[in-house]
Amino acid sequence: MKYSRLLFVGGGMLASVFAAFSAKKSDKPNIVFILCDDMGYGDLGCYGQKYIETPNIDRMASEGMRFTQAYSGSPVSAPSRACIMTGQHTGHGEVRGNKEYWRDSGEVRYGVNTDYAIVGQHPYDPNRVILPEIMKENGYTTGMFGKWAGGYEGSVSTPDKRGIDEFFGYICQFQAHLYYPNFLNRYSSRLGDTATIRVTLEENIKYPMWGVGYALRPQYSADLIHEAAIDWLDRQSGDKPFFGFFTYTLPHAELVQPEDSLLNYYRERLGETRVFNGSYGGRYNPVTHTHAQFAAMIARLDNYVGEILKKLKEKGIVNIKVKDPAGYIVKQRYNVKKPKEPSCCYKSIEEIPYSDAALKESGFESCTRASLKNLLEIIWPVNFLCLLLQSKTVDFADVAQLARAADL
């Protein structure tokens, strides 16, 4: 079994990709794609952060791949996610902003609270095949846990209609501003769902969604979503390859989390810094110790990553140590020079010894997108993700394009 990890960092979001290969069950890799919301590259130790501890992600970076010229698709959520899903940049894609569909939808009651009857954003074009559909068509079990933002409730583009076998999280990115929400959304064919439904958080709705009483709400969405993702991973048997798209909301505002030792650690470390008075219209509750809250949310996310790695290892899906650099395996077949060190040890893309000259030895003239499919035919038997190291820049739109070209 061979295992690879990739850190893909862009303005506003961070994505991690794990790929595990097992010749015993399938020649296709199991893939977990973790997308974090509003995390900058400077928030991680592997990119120079000195105050926030992220040992699990740092270990991924040291044992896997790290990028210094990778970009998100847009400065804001919905169009950036659309770039990943569709493989189109915002000049070609239909989703070009955070267009909301809930403002005039009417209202419903949740305990002592009032919420919108329909929530969500502009839907993805139903005639454009998106990433989960690509994976589904190629024999993958697909699960998505976190934020959707690709269509409002009841629209032509909800998780149940777009190649996803199981979803749990927020269909609406505006709803995701509350970490202790009135409800989350779910689609699970295993549980008999025929559409994406709402799951009421009964303990939360006993208390107000704004103000002093909000702190009494006990059901923290980030934990619930992560628990659902871990449960989904645990149910994967290995008989069929899986694609897990974990679109976690951390560390996007609002800045709030359980009152536990992790938060107290950063309160003591960073002290009483800024205070945020909140935004009722934006669904951001007031908060003190904003720097400590933000730091602890990133550390909490890092803990989630550690638990994902642990679960994969427990199931025998992944071997944590990378023993063979991809370049060495390619060299065996294609006479490309073996690097002196594994590719993960290089600090920048320019230092990685996969040059155009080396590829010409294999009969390929350049690393342009025109030669993408041929290059993937070389690297796919080893690890198609290592192709990303050939490009000086990568962005979110490349993800779906790679999946299409690789014929996963």
Separation, N- and C-terminal Cα atoms: 17 Å
Report the mean per-residue pLDDT as an integer. Answer: 78
Q: How many H/I helical runs?
A: 10
Largest sheet: 9 strands, mixed
Give the helix level as a range of percent. Answer: 25-40%
**Structural class assignment:** alpha/beta
Unreliable runs, pLDDT <50, ≥5 residues?
Answer: 1-13, 319-391
- Strands of the largest sheet, in order across it? 4-1-2-3-12-8-9-10-11
Order of helices and strands: EEEHEEHEEHEEEEHEHHHHHEH
Strand tally = 13
Residues in β-strands, percent: 15-25%
Radius of gyration: 21 Å
* Silhouette: globular
Brief account:
The chain has 408 residues and is α/β, with parallel strands linked by helices. The protein has ten helices and 13 strands.
Written description of the protein model:
Mean pLDDT is 78; it is low at 1-13 and 319-391. Strand 10 (183-188) and strand 11 (197-200) form a beta hairpin. Helix content is 26%, strand content 18%. The protein contains ten helices and 13 strands. It has helices spanning 55-63, 77-86, 131-137, 221-234, 261-270, 290-314, 326-334, 356-360, 372-379, 397-406; strands at 2-10, 13-22, 26-37, 65-66, 70-71, 107-110, 113-116, 141-147, 166-170, 183-188, 197-200, 242-247, 394-395. The longest helix is centred in the last third of the chain and has 25 residues, at 290-314. The strands form three sheets. A nine-stranded mixed sheet has the order 4-1-2-3-12-8-9-10-11, sandwiched between helices. Strands 5-13 form a two-stranded parallel ribbon. The chain is globular and about 50 Å long. It starts with a strand and ends with a helix. By secondary structure, it is an alpha/beta fold.
